[in-house]
Design goal:
Length: 196
């Protein structure tokens, strides 16, 4: 069972309990060349359909909405994550950053959140990455405001920014997580339990 799968199982169990009323290998892969090649909406939708499988009916609409606002991304991440919250929350994930001209890079993310938020979820996640100057530039904190409503396999999208780089996570969640929060995601080249 992977790091994220274990966390997702714990987060979902905590959410069910609440509902029922109970209270550096990546460095070797990085490239100093700027990553400027972009992905078309069709390429992203095809990749998303392969990744998300049968729950991908609304994926094309979300990708089109993101592309109309931020243009074509020059990278994307496919991975899985788990999260849980009761006012304060945590999110942990792992995946691979894909770029057209700078190679693929294993990434991990974690982050805290605070707000009107409760529940737990396990999610497959596709993150569109815009204005990424080099693959190692992903290793920083990206902040934003997130609103969630995952009820049995829905999609959700939010935008996080740092140093003119925009990361747009698109999640297909399983579990129940409702609310709005402010927080950040920190990307690292190895897994860690420290969200700060």
């Amino acid at each position: 069972m992977s790091f994220v799968s274990r966390f997702a199982a714990v987060a979902i169990a905590a959410a069910v309990s609440l509902i029922l009323g109970n209270s550096d290998p990546a460095a070797a892969q990085s490239s100093p060349r700027p990553a400027r090649a972009t992905y078309s909406s069709d390429e992203l939708v095809n990749s998303g359909h392969r990744f998300f499988g049968n729950v991908s009916r609304g994926l094309a609409d979300i990708i089109e909405r993101a592309s109309s606002r931020w243009g074509q991304p020059n990278g994307y991440v496919l991975g899985e994550e788990g999260s849980g919250a009761v006012v304060a929350g945590l999110r942990y994930g792992e995946g691979t950053l894909y770029t057209k001209n700078a190679g693929d890079l294993k990434v991990y993310w974690q982050g805290p959140s605070l707000g009107f938020d409760w529940g737990g979820e396990g999610a497959r996640t596709m993150m569109l990455v815009y204005n990424l100057p080099a693959t190692e530039a992903i290793y920083q904190r990206f902040g934003g405001i997130d609103g969630s409503a995952y009820l049995v396999g829905g999609f959700g999208m939010t935008a996080l920014t740092a140093n003119r780089i925009v990361v747009v996570p698109i999640r297909s969640g399983l579990g129940l997580r409702l609310g709005a929060n402010v927080g950040y995601l920190k990307f690292t080249n190895r897994p860690t339990w420290n969200p700060f």
